[in-house]
Amino acid sequence: MENDIVFLVSSSGGHWVQLNKLLPAFSGYQCVFMTTQKNTTAKNGNSLVLTVPDSSRWTKLKLMHTAFKTFFYVMKYRPKYVVSTGAAPGLFAIIFGKALGAKTIWVDSIANVNTLSLSGKLAGKFSDLWLTQWEHLAKPTGPFYLGSVI
Amino acid sequence: MIFVTVGNQLPFNRLIQTVDAWAKSAKLDVFAQIGDSKFKPKHIEYELFLDSQRFEDKLQKAELVIAHAGMGTIITCLDLAKQIIVMPRLAQYKEHRNDHQLATARQFEKRGLLVAYDDKTLIGMLENYQTEEWVNRDLLKGKNATESLIEGIKQFITAN
């Protein structure tokens, strides 16, 4: 249990702030973070924070770079759980994590109030726990609503 | 000190210009993080970007935060119990790719967040901010929602 790694992945900015709000759910586990902005510190102060290039569907070449680096890190750390609040880098971590046997959790950003993000929609296929933070976006087959970060 | 922030991704000239124009006559201590902007304010102190430590410092020192409707800033201000007024970026002015900030702002406005959709409204709020009704922290905070999300994830982890 104590040595099981939880991989927490998100883009910088709002996604990152929300990701850190989920930390209490993983107390007792070793947390490794991955984000897109260098020199970032996690809320618990001492966790490792890895960096991958920021990218989106509008920067296809960079997307490949992000994917490679994410795959490398997932292979290196072999997390038991992969959690993401989005966006594209998180989706890659969920996909690769799932492929390597991790249990995966997607929490769609609270900023997506009218519809799930594109990465959030795609994450459904690869998430063992697929969540939206808005009750009106929840569906019987997922995504599900359990609450929100604020 | 009043702290203005537009986030790290895109400039937000409509917001900065409005605050700059107001600050000319307001004579208050205002500091703005303006992003990669070609417009440089004349009446307020500013920097383009702040690293996370300096950003937190400014937030801590601020008595009022004026920001784009970015969830990161909104959540951080709530956590620090800071009064905040947001102005959503609009796609029609190319302030963002889409109008999701507008949707976010509308949703949280129902829960008590102060939102200024245009410059006139923002100025109106600024003129009154010291007497403006404090954002109802309990309304906005949704404590039960946070607890149930954390608990739900914990249960999933235990079962898996």
Care to describe what's here?
The complex is a heterodimer of chains A (150) and B (160). By secondary structure, chain A is an alpha/beta fold. Chain A contains 4 helices and 7 strands; from the N terminus they run E-H-E-E-H-E-H-E-H-E-E. In chain A, strands 3-2-1-4-5-6-7 form a 7-stranded parallel sheet, covered by helices on one side. In chain A, helix 3 links the parallel strand 4 and strand 5. The mean pLDDT of chain A is 94. Chain B has a 6-stranded parallel sheet with strand order 3-2-1-4-5-6, sandwiched between helices. In chain B, strand 4, helix 3 and strand 5 form a beta-alpha-beta unit. In chain B, helix 1 packs parallel to helix 5. The chains are: A alpha/beta (150), B alpha/beta (160). The interface between A and B is large, with 38 and 36 residues.
Low-confidence stretches of chain B: none
- Main β sheet profile of chain A: 7 strands, parallel
Low-confidence stretches of chain A: none
Computed CA radius of gyration of chain A, to the nearest angstrom: 14 Å
Relative strand content of chain B: 5-15%
Overall mean pLDDT of chain B: 90
- End-to-end span of chain A in angstroms? 28 Å
Overall mean pLDDT of chain A stands at 94
Number of strand segments of chain A: 7
Largest interface: A-B, 38 and 36 residues
Q: Care to count the β-strands of chain B?
A: 6
The ordered string of helix (H) and strand (E) elements of chain A is: EHEEHEHEHEE
Helix and strand string of chain B, N-terminal first?
EHEEHEHEHEHHH
Structural class of chain A: alpha/beta
What's the overall geometry of chain A?
Answer: globular
- Sheet with the most strands: spatial strand order of chain A: 3-2-1-4-5-6-7
Distance between the termini of chain B: 48 Å
Please give a quick description of this structure.
The complex is a heterodimer of chains A (150) and B (160). Chain A contains 4 helices and 7 strands, in the order E-H-E-E-H-E-H-E-H-E-E.
